[in-house]
């Protein structure tokens, strides 16, 4: 067994959770992946993984090794790629983090189009609405929406999304169409808990000044798409990004509420770590994002 092959099996087993899945990722059998890992442990003289019938768990030595290996293997892939002819495609693994709904609706489409241009490239898309530590999790770039915290990350703006209040025509006919932001307190509002605002409430605009309006309702969800689905059932007013409800507004299934008072648009950025040699695949992906605008129905 080549030592590098053993390293690749170890990383794939940690990330996929089993030797069968690791073998599938690497194009070998699960049995051979398990054998390679055992030989790697023998050569290093330490146990890297604890095997149980249900899952694989890292030992302390395994955690230390995993903290270094993914980027080291990526660097090795970059060196090999750079030595190829200039006209060759990209290789290695591009690791991208994105918010759940935005990733499902838009980022996965962009990544598919990018990967089609580079058939040897492996795409690892990780979707989560939680903060992701790029360095700790080996992420090349993260797509983030909203204000960016001060950090060592470099940001490239990709576009912006509007936050819009929407309801079905049937709901507004039944319950009335609010004409002032404070009238929202008399309505059933579907609240997306991912919209974290100081002091709570919905961040709106009144007389060109930002205001926060307390809202109430029987639904709290942590998904803009679920908020939109409940809204489509006529259950209340929702505040959603336009990439989630733009098509519904265009088709007339949803209508905007309090349009003059909608919040300021939120910026969409791709962020990546500063002070580290940028892999060629990441540089190419960021350049690709410049030429591939976000494809969703704006309002």
UniProtKB/TrEMBL annotation:
Keyword Transcription regulation appears in the UniProt entry: yes
Name of the protein described by the UniProt record: DNA-binding transcriptional LysR family regulator
Family the UniProt entry places it in: Belongs to the LysR transcriptional regulatory family.
UniProt GO molecular function: DNA binding
UniProt KW keywords: DNA-binding, Transcription, Transcription regulation
CDD domains: PBP2_CrgA_like
Gene3D superfamilies, sorted: 3.40.190.290, Winged helix-like DNA-binding domain superfamily/Winged helix DNA-binding domain
Organism lineage: Bacteria, Pseudomonadati, Pseudomonadota, Alphaproteobacteria, Hyphomicrobiales
Transmembrane helix found in the keyword field: no
InterPro entries: LysR-type_TF_proteobact-type, LysR_HTH_N, LysR_subst-bd, WH-like_DNA-bd_sf, WH_DNA-bd_sf
